[in-house]
Structures are given as C-alpha cells and as structure tokens.
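Suppose you are handed a protein chain with no further information: no name, no annotation, nothing but its sequence. What can you learn? This example shows the usual starting point.
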Amino acid sequence: MTRSLLALAFVVPLIAAAPAFAQESDMRPKIHVTGEGEVRVAPDTALVTLSVLKEAATAREAMDENNAAMAAVIAALKEEGIEAKDLQTSGLSINPQYVYPDGKNGEDKPRITGYQVTNTLSVRVRDIEKVGAVLDRAVSLGVNQGGNIVFTNDDPASVLGEARKKAVEDAMAKARELAEAAGAEVGKVLRITESGGTPPPMPMMKAARMEAMVASAPVPVEAGENAYRVNVNVTFELLQN
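A reasonable first move is to predict its three-dimensional structure. Written in structure tokens, the prediction is:
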C-alpha cells in the first residue's frame, strides 16, 4: 500500500507538468510579424488652458483682483455654453516678488515688493467651432496667460477598433508575403499582442502672455486631424510546402 502511494505521488506532478513541458518544447516553425494600423479622424473636443495673473502690493489685493477676473471668465464661459463639469481649476499659486541687491539700488538684502497670484483653469470645449470665440472672450475679461490647446476625441473607441483591424490585416499580409518568399504557407495564429492606441497630442499654442490678442478678432483655430495608431505583434504557425 505504501509503495503504491509513493508511486502515485511521483506520477501526479509529472502529469501536471506535461502541458507546460509540451508548450516549452513546441518546435513548430513559426513566423513573427508586427502589423501597423492607423486611422485619422477630425477631433471633436478641445482642451484649453487659461490663466489669470495679477500683481499687487499685498497678497490679499492680488488675490482679490485675480478672483474677480477669474469669476468673470468662468461666467462668460458658461454663457458660451461650457458646462460646469467641463471647467476645472488646475492650479493656484501665490508668489512674492523681490528686489535684490545689485550694488546700485541701495538694498542690502532681498526685499518683497509685491505679490503675484496666478489662477489656472482647464476648459473642455466640446464644440470645436467655439474655441476661437472662447479664447477671445476669455482674454478680453482678464486671461493673460495660457492658451495651450490640445485637440482630442471624446470617445475614440470605435476609431481604435478600426485601427486594430487594419493592424491585424497588415500583420497577415506581411506574414503571407514573407512565407511565400520562403516557399511556405501561413498557418493558424499562435499568439497576438497589442501596443499603441494613443494619438499624439496636438498643441496649437504654447503657454504665453496673451495681451496682444485682446484687440484682435476671434482667434482663428484649425483643428486638423488626430492620428490613432495601433501596433500588433502576431505569431503564426509556418507550414512547409
């Protein structure tokens, strides 16, 4: 009885390890290829960064001036149809301003001369045609920094699905071409993995002071297209003729 149990104890691990061993020893000829798929689509959403910078003798004065200007900007954006859920404060800073000794100004140590307050607002504009008007009105009401714009798509799932299909088709075409050149045929898919799927950002304006835009007409904005790219790595069985 004891010998039978010992024999069974050795057999069970061997049976459990059999599938893993068979997988590791799979010596079938294979071919590995990378397929690329790209779909271009017009963006339907713009992410805009707007900042109000105010300077005053005290932090309280600078904050009060900034609050009044930013409140006017937010109210105007809502009048333009921007919903509250698409407005988000993304930064607030209070910085003292100094004058430093330079040997000529009579200062013997750094001295605070005032305060600078910056409030930054991230805005999601879901109507691309409104981006220029939003920028123009915001600048007129006190926005004097920002202007960085990134065009994106609110729901790119269907576009990415199309890009995946193109990537797989590209991988299959490459595999057939390589196999034909080698005098073989492509068999079944053994493994497939995906990478990519994120469009490159498309900033239209870099952060900068925007006073020069105040007197201009609504800002001309071109959204262009977003490119969604997907790569797939596919392993095929290679059948010898």
